[in-house]
Amino acid sequence: MANSDPVYLRVVEDLRRQITEGLLQPGAPIPSRHQITRKYGVGETAARHALRVLAQEGLIIGRVGSGHRVRQRPDLLPLHRAQAHFSTDMHAVGRRPTCDVKTDSAEARPDIAVRLRIAAQSPVTRTRIVYRSDGKPVQLAVSYEPIVYNDGTDDITQVAHRLGGNGLKLTEVTEHVYARVPQPVESDVLDLPAGVHVLHVERTHWAGDKPVETSDVIIPCDQFRLVYTLPAPYGEQTNR
Amino acid sequence: MANSDPVYLRVVEDLRRQITEGLLQPGAPIPSRHQITRKYGVGETAARHALRVLAQEGLIIGRVGSGHRVRQRPDLLPLHRAQAHFSTDMHAVGRRPTCDVKTDSAEARPDIAVRLRIAAQSPVTRTRIVYRSDGKPVQLAVSYEPIVYNDGTDDITQVAHRLGGNGLKLTEVTEHVYARVPQPVESDVLDLPAGVHVLHVERTHWAGDKPVETSDVIIPCDQFRLVYTLPAPYGEQTNR
DNA sequence: AGAGTAAAGTTGGAATCACAACTGATGGCC
DNA sequence: GGCCATCAGTTGTGATTCCAACTTTACTCT
């Protein structure tokens, strides 16, 4: 990192390093605002800012009159540690696939059939969507659905809308999330170096109690951070 | 909310409401620092703070010289919308049960046996742990494990440690997360009003490729928020 | 008209000062 | 010893001011 970084980031990064590396154990006191100004040679604004960022991340917790301490139960779970499990649904919040929607011809997939609760030899269609941000692929969604729902004319990516036309209503979503070091599978599409950690989201959409679509979403871990926040103010929670 | 709330929170809540309710569509400009000071009658600090909070939540994005705008793809996903899916592992990050650990006598549970990949009639022990924060139950974990690993003497809650004594090493965790409106099941323990949204985390601990423990974690949605952040600085990302 | 320039406005960062509410510890008093 | 009051320290919040870097707009000059 360049030394032209904001000064508060220097403080944040140093303290975060000490916490994540274990030098500062849970419960250990964090230097106070004034101590930080002296120790790092920064102003009060930068010190306050740094503490607030760390508190917002959930790494430390501040109590008025008592000071900041490393959290006993850090709610910030860096994804690369694989203790943080996370799923997101960019599809659901309106992220549009910028390109690369590939639908394979239907074939029998007994493993998927189990998730969809259909006959093992029932053909399913597989749709793979590569989401890109600034040209860089950031997410791969592999979606399966029973061929019976696919009339072949509608937009394959609009599962919910099309199913609505079939009189089905998506009422529930289930997910299966895990972190793993992938085999060289799918790395052709996402351009992942072998051995990198990813999140693998296994999702099933339900219409009533009937699974109608299931999908796999693969997200490289290094692109996101999961912050498990509590209602404002920042990180307020008794923690002892 | 009391009107003794911090001033900046008034601004945050008003703008957040306008965004989530759709009054401010994605791409719409947000009042600038100076406009906020005038419109809300607050100081510059409060205005800046409010904008930073919203940016940190991912609802808006600021660009130097150009101003703040509502994000095209908000990365803040309120859990109660069920578009945000989320899992956490309080167990793994050292959250201790404050009370209410109940272990039932072992019995056959074919549904759980499938998850554990054991014979359908193999008895499993069920442990239910109610986690409390300030006396209020905030989380229920229902854990199952094959009776063969349970010698009945060790702490039932320390699955990982005990399994280590059996020569097994937990190498992987899989999770299954879904939001649902629960039946009146478990509401006796968590005191959930019927119909409330919860997160249901279905988790399996693996030793190598062998599942050794599986559990259900139920968390009421109103207690948490998932923020899907990007690396610092706040919300920086070209978004157009 | 067109191109380049200047000005105004905006954000991110930062310093300094201030104050209310709270905590922990100290010390004095019974 | 035990109890209570005081006090220094800390956080959360807030105001004010300033600056660099950047964008947008308007204007001037050719």
The chain-level mean pLDDT of chain A equals 57
- Count the helices of chain A. How many? 6
- Biggest interface pair, counts: A-B, 49 and 45 residues
Q: Assign the CATH topology of the largest domain in chain A.
A: Chorismate lyase
Q: What is the name of the CATH architecture of the largest domain in chain A?
A: 3-Layer(aba) Sandwich
The number of strands of chain A is 11
Terminus-to-terminus distance of chain A: 36 Å
Domain HTH gntR-type (chains A, B): 5-73
GO molecular function (chains A, B): DNA binding; DNA-binding transcription factor activity
Protein name (chains A, B): UTRA domain-containing protein
InterPro entries (chains A, B): Bact_HTH_transcr_reg (IPR050679), Chorismate_lyase_/UTRA_dom_sf (IPR028978), Tscrpt_reg_HTH_GntR (IPR000524), UTRA (IPR011663), WH-like_DNA-bd_sf (IPR036388), WH_DNA-bd_sf (IPR036390)
Give a written overview of the molecule.
2 copies of one chain form a homodimer. In chain A, strand 9 (198-207) and strand 10 (210-220) form a beta hairpin. In chain A, the strands form 3 sheets. In chain A, strands 4, 5, 6, 7, 8, 9 and 10 form a 7-stranded antiparallel sheet that branches. In chain A, strands 1-2 form a two-stranded antiparallel sheet. A two-stranded antiparallel ribbon of chain A has the order 3-11. The radius of gyration of chain A is 23 Å and the shape is elongated. Chain A is α+β, with helices and mostly antiparallel strands and 240 residues long. The first copy, chain A, has 2 domains: 7-75, Winged helix-like DNA-binding domain superfamily/Winged helix DNA-binding domain (Arc Repressor Mutant, subunit A, Orthogonal Bundle), CATH 1.10.10.10; 99-223, Chorismate lyase (3-Layer(aba) Sandwich). The two termini of chain A are 36 Å apart. Chain A has helices at residues 7-20, 33-40, 44-57, 110-116, 159-165, 187-190, and strands at residues 60-63, 67-70, 76-77, 99-103, 107-108, 123-133, 136-146, 172-180, 198-207, 210-220, 225-229. The interface between A and B is large, with 49 and 45 residues. Strand 8 (172-180) of chain A pairs antiparallel with strand 8 of chain B. Chain A binds a DNA duplex (30 and 30 nucleotides) through helix 3.
